Predict the structure of Activator of Hsp90 ATPase-like protein.
Amino acid sequence: MSIFENILDILEKKGAISIPSLLDEMNKLSNSQNTSRKPLELSHVKSVISRKREIFHIKNNIVTIDPDKEPILLSVSLGGYPGPWYKVEVDFINGRFVYFEWHLSSFSHRTELPAASGSIEEFKKELYRLKIWKWQKEYQNPGIILDSVTWSIKLITKENIFESQGIQAFPEGWEKFCKALSKLTGKYIC
């Protein structure tokens, strides 16, 4: 696991924490996992936090995840003619998701897929990497569109709502987003 992922895990479990305490937690975690790497230094932790400044909030040497970026709920709708159409809602607070799949010929519905599908914590980390809060509000293909994929995303964070949508045009990182969503649900979605 990367230093960035370890920081996210510790902040998720412990909440706001000082940078030296964060370093102690990371070194304890490394020792408990019996890794043979050298203990981390304060400069390593500070370097990661400064590189990911848009995700972390620092005040009086206390680190938290920026509430403007910390996800609470993600809603994804995606599909096209002749189908299928997908709807996924991820509830990060309660640690579950709901998956719907529609086909013109039939309707398939599954809720709260088994734990074997994917990890909401890993999906959340991928959202931080993808920075979907930076996606434009709208993406459109400038050409003539006959059969197209239409999609929309709504990310609710502790302090903001980010929405993005498109018709046969996608933001940078769309493939990684689809891969993460497919891994979470256990179904190929896009």
Summary: The helical segments are 3-14, 19-32, 42-51, 120-130, 174-185. The first strand starts at residue 17 and ends at 18.
